[in-house]
Design a protein that fits this description.
5-stranded antiparallel β-sheet; elongated; 3-stranded antiparallel β-sheet; OB fold (Dihydrolipoamide Acetyltransferase, E2P); 8 helices
């Protein structure tokens, strides 16, 4: 399945989750009071318990969404659904713990947890659905506003914090190399070879490279076949790719990737 759209990884959608989830939970429970929640919490202290629980929902949303934003992960839409379900379970654990400690009842903790998860699920699944649909609509709108030829031939490079750093036309890219926590992008601009260091990983740009015609020729290199002038082997049997640009290093080609690259030349 395709990786999740970049809009899902931006900060504003995470901020919306942090704000909308607790507000909607409070409003939904206060207005509709589903599944006898007023009797469950007690009518006398219903408003107090609901306010505290909504604050717990907010703190859980802040914690999980900050983790989602700052920790680099390769996520597709199926995994994102499981992530949202995990957030609901995580929130339910803390809400159930509060109720178990505060309510004067002889019920086991996991009974509170089961009931709490039902309340959290029926309220938050609506928010997750609306926000996800809104992000998908925004994604399609952005694509519709973009020249389709530009979408195919432009490469947008994001850093590990999901910030857009550089946009290049795919034909201008010569090769990309990895070095520790950075990838170095070598490209041609105004007939000159330039480079740009991006805090990212080869794994993070794998799909972007494949979608724009770059191929992996080594564990630490992606190369643009359109710029390969010749493949050769030195005296030690090590294979290299010579590019058509001046003052560019010869790119190592491992045996694992040699066949695919040679077929594309």
């Amino acid at each position: 399945m395709a990786h999740i759209a970049s809009v899902y990884r931006k900060f504003i959608p995470q901020l919306l989750h942090m704000i909308v989830l607790p507000i909607f939970f409070f409003s939904f429970m206060l207005i509709y009071r589903p599944m006898g929640i007023e009797d469950f919490l007690g009518s006398e202290w219903f408003g107090v318990h609901l306010t505290i629980i909504s604050c717990i929902v907010m703190m859980c949303a802040v914690a999980t969404r900050l983790v989602y934003y700052f920790v680099p992960m390769r996520i597709n839409y199926s995994i994102y659904i499981f992530w949202c379900l995990g957030e609901m379970v995580f929130t339910s654990f803390f809400v159930a713990l509060y109720l178990w400690l505060v309510l004067d009842r002889s019920l086991p903790y996991f009974e509170y947890l089961t009931t709490t998860f039902q309340y959290v699920f029926i309220s938050q699944v609506i928010v997750y659905t609306v926000l996800s649909l809104s992000m998908r609509i925004y994604e399609y709108h952005q694509k519709a506003m973009t020249d389709p030829h530009e979408t195919i031939h432009r490469m947008r490079f994001y850093d590990s914090q999901h910030n857009l750093k550089i946009v290049l036309t795919a034909p201008s890219v010569l090769y990309i190399s990895a070095e520790e926590n950075y990838v170095n992008i070598y490209y041609v601009e105004n007939n000159r070879v330039k480079d740009y260091s991006l805090r990212s990983s080869m794994k993070a740009i794998d799909e972007l490279c494949q979608d724009n015609g770059l191929v992996r020729c080594h564990r630490s290199f992606y190369i643009n076949p359109a710029h390969v002038k010749v493949l050769r082997k030195d005296r030690d049997g090590i294979m290299y790719a010579e590019l058509d640009a001046d003052d560019v290093r010869h790119i190592p080609v491992s045996k694992t990737y040699y066949g695919r690259l040679s077929d594309m030349l």
